[in-house]
Specification:
Blueprint (H helix, E strand, L loop, with lengths): L3 E7 L25 H18 L3 E5 L8 H15 L2 E7 L16 H7 L14 E2 L9 E2 L6 H17 L4 E5 L9 H6 L9 H18 L4 E5 L23 H5 L7 E5 L22 E6 L14 H13 L4 E5 L7 H12 L10 H13 L2 H11 L8 H14 L2 H23 L1
Parallel strand pairs: 1-2, 1-10, 2-3, 3-6, 6-7, 7-8, 8-9, 9-10
Antiparallel strand pairs: 4-5
Helix pairs in contact: 1-2, 4-6, 8-9, 9-10, 10-11, 12-13
Length: 433
Amino acid sequence: MINLRLLWTWDHCVQWTAGRAGMHDWGASNEYPASAEDFLREYSLLVRWCGQNGIDGVVIWGLLRDGHGGVETATRLCEVAEAAGVKVLAGIGLNAYGGVYYEGASEWSLNNHLEKHPELFAFRADGERHILLPDNFMPQPMLHACPSRPENMDYMRDGLRWLMETVPVHGVQVEAGDTLCCECPLCRERRQHPVSALSWEDMALVYAPAAEAVWSVRPDATVVLETYSHPDPALEGDVPGFGGGAPPWAAECLAQFPRGAYVQWVGDYVTAPRNSVPWTTRAPEGFAGNIMRSHHATWWRGRGDEVAIHWLAEVAQKSIAQGFDGLSIFGDKSPFRTGCELNYLALADYGSEANPEADMDSFLKRVAAPLLGGDELAAEFLRLARLIEAPEELEGAVTAARRQAAKLEGRPADRWTWLAWYLSRWVYDRDLA
């Protein structure tokens, strides 16, 4: 069974008001382009929808930012989420990604901490400070802290305790960093194994102190630990990066993770369109749970809004078979976009009491059919949506979706209209190319 379902978000990407214009809706480490009122409105819509539709929580990266009201606005949102029965988990980068307070005039902003104490920076192999410089994916500079410096460890603990004392979040999702590792002499001497863009040994170093700091204030808080990895063993001799398998030293590192936390893994490569790794490894035992996070469909670097309920079914089925009990997907876009709506509803349904085997046909009949005009129409909707893989059939698919929209009324008609628009984008791009 799946017991924990999360939507994963960046603050600047969330757009749950369907008609809102001018939103920067992709990327990481971006500026926030709107106001505190916008932030509260968009996330209030999100958490209330989650509460009404069986999704347990939302992870928010950039939760604390001066640009959308800092502690005051975050507190108001947590109150909305509490009333909706939904967990708010703060996304916290421990060595990068801004720290506890993502952006603003706060001592708990990691950037401010490092600018005040430049000797505590992480360093590249060439001896320069590790600052990830802007590109089109991460347009703001990202400063990195050295995980081996005890001053940074103390700062991390103090910041997490401050967060839990100050903002009524339900917990945190923490990350050690996946944007290259500190190569200073302290880190090189400490580590016994090679690194890629990430280090399992760095995770083992910082996750237990981070969780202990959170639980010292709120013992019942939910703590999610990111591994950036798939649980199956990596290929021999490989030092895997994001989404790769677990290296041979992963087990010894996992043994140092705090047992009361959830461990989060990456499931991008176990289903179409990639299918590049097997999945034979059982979930590690002794933790609060194991979450499989997938970058399917709703992810801003994927094929936007794509209907992915068949892939999500496969991820859920494999998760259940291997003893995983949590699922997470991106949740930035409004369910007015029917592809997103169906994906979110599938997340809520797969592995539930109503659908313990994560059967897609069951989902189509019980959940999708009433939204789309009936059983046969639900199956036809999915078939047409998948024709983005068949460029020669796209024009016929657009025509079919438009005809069906004309036969329906209300929201079912809207959903078919959305499908016609979605498919017609692919026709337009094909012809433009």
